[in-house]
Amino acid sequence: MRLSASEKFEIIQIVTGSKLGVKKTLQEFGIARSTFYKRYNSYLDQGCDGLLDKGKAPGRQWNSIP
Asked: pTM for this one?
């Protein structure tokens, strides 16, 4: 499930402000801690622009036959 940048930001705000703790709050959302911290670090480094979907770089597939 892809989330928009605003949804990612909202989750970051909820998790960082939660009194339950990060692990339990993320379990309620069904989000892995590694995914959350990857998004959170992107947010800290780049602000809201870090939460935007980058998409895949155009080019060949890794398993295509030349």
From this structure: 0.75
